[in-house]
Write a structure and sequence with these properties.
Elements lengths: L16 H6 L17 E3 L2 E5 L5 E5 L3 E13 L1 E10 L10 E9 L12 E8 L4 E9 L4 E10 L11 E11 L2 E10 L2 E8 L7 E10 L2 E10 L1
Antiparallel strand pairs: 1-2, 2-3, 3-14, 4-13, 5-10, 5-14, 6-7, 6-13, 7-8, 8-9, 10-11, 11-12
């Protein structure tokens, strides 16, 4: 299924103003939890650390939002997980929100640093649709291109979707060369594993969180990387 068929899950995946501003926070050191991630307010959303140390996104209009963080890694294999809770609003309706986690790769590895828009993203929608995407920055146009590697927009394909869901992604290449194997998990259960033959995306340095939601509040907690 091509990316166009995921329109309900990935509306446009062009970064909104708040996500663009958030890139300024990528240098935050590892080990400080989600409160070390970018915080601020932008076009249609704000994202902050609440009094429990959770990362809260307040969405006021249906758009896609993404933040990125440099974790100081240079690894051929990485696994990341985070708990996501949809608290309230229209986002709490079945299918009202989508959320994701991803691995950031510097295209060409450490020999070509600074290409922070490349990597893989695992997405889940609250009606049970899901996808694994590859995204790459197009230097000439300044746009991010998203390519669906696998997934479906059919409701109820995975689940059950709970009030709080732990989403995870593993990105792995053998010694940082050759194809990359990407696996998506939900609540400790494997959803799908796919192999990308592109050899430009096989070393990983950071993470990304993603939201596509109707108005409401979403909370990210207990981020873990290994």
């Amino acid at each position: 299924m091509r990316i166009a068929h995921l329109a309900a899950l990935v509306v446009s995946l062009l970064l909104a103003a708040c996500a663009n501003q958030s890139r300024q926070g990528m240098a935050a050191p590892q080990g400080e939890g989600l409160c070390a991630w970018p915080m601020g307010e932008g076009n249609g959303c704000n994202w902050t650390c609440d009094n429990r140390g959770a990362y809260r996104w307040t969405v006021r209009g249906r758009q896609d939002y993404q933040v990125r963080k440099d974790l100081g890694l240079d690894t051929a294999t990485v696994t990341m997980e985070v708990d996501v809770t949809v608290l309230n609003g229209e986002a709490a309706k079945p299918g009202g929100a989508g959320f994701g986690i991803g691995c950031l790769s510097r295209r060409g590895g450490i020999t070509n640093p600074g290409r922070t828009h490349n990597g893989y993203l695992g997405l889940v929608k609250t009606n049970g649709a899901w996808a694994i995407m590859k995204y790459v920055h197009i230097t000439l146009t300044g746009e991010d291109k998203f390519i669906q590697l696998t997934g479906t927009n059919e409701p109820g394909t995975i689940g059950p979707i709970q009030a709080t869901n732990r989403i995870g992604i593993t990105c792995s290449s053998e010694q940082g060369i050759g194809p990359t194997v990407v696996s998506l998990s939900l609540n400790g259960q494997g959803v799908k594993t796919v192999t990308d033959s592109d050899e430009n995306f096989n070393r990983f340095f950071g993470a990304t969180l993603w939201v596509s939601s109707l108005p409401g509040d979403l909370v990210f907690e207990r981020f873990n990387v290994r």
